[in-house]
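Hi everyone,

Forwarding the result from last night's run.
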Amino acid sequence: MNNISVSQSVLIVGGYGVVGEQASTIFRQRFPEVPLLLAGRSPSGASMLTESLGNADAIQLDVMSERPLDVLTEKPVAVLSVVNDPYNYLLADCLRLGIPYLDITRWTEVMCEAVVQSSFVDIKAPVMLGSAWMAGVTAIVTKAASKGFSKINNIDIDVLFALADKSGPNSAEFMDRIAVPFLVTENGEKKLKPSFSEPKTVSFPGGYTGKTYRFDMPDQITLPFTTGASSVSGRIGFDSALSTSGLAALVKTGVMTLLGHPIFGGLRRSILHNPGQGAAHEVVISLQGVDDGGRVKRREVTMLDPLGQTHLTALGAVVQLERMLGLDGLPAPSPGIHYPEQHPNIDKALELLQEHGVLISGLS
């Protein structure tokens, strides 16, 4: 290990993966003085990255071990998890040691599981559950779009996933749940919805128009509470009508459910996860409600990252990491559970996104 101070370091678990490398690089550009400790299963593969970052090192860490942080001699200043924590060992270690913890990889079910687990201990540091779409970016932009509404009746979030975009293995974990029903809030009530159902046609900012289908994302659980919206729906589509309709047919006919058996894991992943060299990631957020005068109010906000979903996810991670550490000019959050859209200075978060090339329209 290089001569960096572990006690002053930000530990990034998965810090040299597809998203982790970008998050580490962006954070380093903004805060060259903060030591970074990149953790994963094969630290030898991170040597070029740590050298280019400077003030950084790599260590071996296994989130499948019961106390993964026992490999450290000192507590880091914070932990950012960019990999799945399937048994919550990393979360449990951070709770036990009072280390600020940010996780950006949990789908809805395991995010709720983290809330339950955290409720049984005395939380001594911030726990940022930042797994809303694109590491909370979509939830943050939705919160910004909610300004000027006295009541929000409906929020629709539509995502266009480019088949040529880059993606890491955690994207496959999300997509792996494509056939699993999930809860949404509809007219103030919780309802179970089949995945890839109830299509709608959406025009995206890059010029593509196509169908999107219901999809499980944590935003649908948190936004009704953080915006007061009566209904929140998330949908996804691909930039190929054939691929979108084909996947919808596989889900509707039950084929994807059958492929959910572990023995079909390889085949299922080959259908759902075929990363390319990179393409833009696009989101349309539509809100409907009333303004302070009781008049019907509608707003449509679009977001496009030309560098794709891994870049946008990395930016979301950096926004939340800065918030958790109080590096954004505001006091660090108090101990307890926090969500991305609770950011006390949304404009500051939007500024970071736009500085890094994210195109956001419709907020003004």
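The longest strand covers residues 151-161.

Cheers,
N.
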